Amino acid sequence: MRTSVIERKTAETNITLTLKLDGTGKSNVCSGVGFLDHMLTLFAAHSRFDLTLTCLGDIQVDDHHSAEDIGICLGQALCEALGAKRGINRYASTTLPMDESLILTAVDISGRSCLCYDVDYPTEKIGTFDAELIEEFFQAFVRNCPMALHIRKMAGSNSHHIAEGVFKSVARTLKAAVAIDPALGDEIPSTKGVI
After folding, report:
1. Which end of the chain is more exposed for a tag (fewer CB within 10 A), N or C?
2. Integer Cα distance of 11 and 9 in angstroms
3. What is the rounded CA–CA span in Å between residue 65 and residue 67?
4. What is the pLDDT of residues 135-178, one digit of tens each?
């Protein structure tokens, strides 16, 4: 069973996160940051990962530490749940429309961290959430589950739609990349023999 439980406690956040890759997309997310809860709920639904998250963060300062540390925990959980990455597809890409926005995402679960994030937002904030924290979240995520993750906005004029498209597109791309390919059996999908 490809699951993981991560706990992280710092002077800024106290997080418990449970991830099940072969799930149904159910989630129970309470980060203290309403917009991030919305995005992570969408992420779980579209990846079909089961996700449980609680975060007590210093949101009286701002949402930065919570967003970054949740990205760290989600990355650690995915990395742990994948183990040696035997039999996974490894590569995947998705072009996803969300109303007027269009987001392209591609991933290689390569064991090497690289985020190429080419997404601009018309507004600095989405509600009370700083739009720049979305990139911080994904940067923390790929540093803790080493992969090449490309996220590119092809179109979009509404910041909420763009952000929603990003999380849904990443979710669907990861769903495909971590899926087991029956033809691979127990093989690690690399000529190096390790990822």
Report:
1. N
2. 7
3. 6
4. 999 999 999 999 999 999 999 999 999 999 999 999 999 999 99
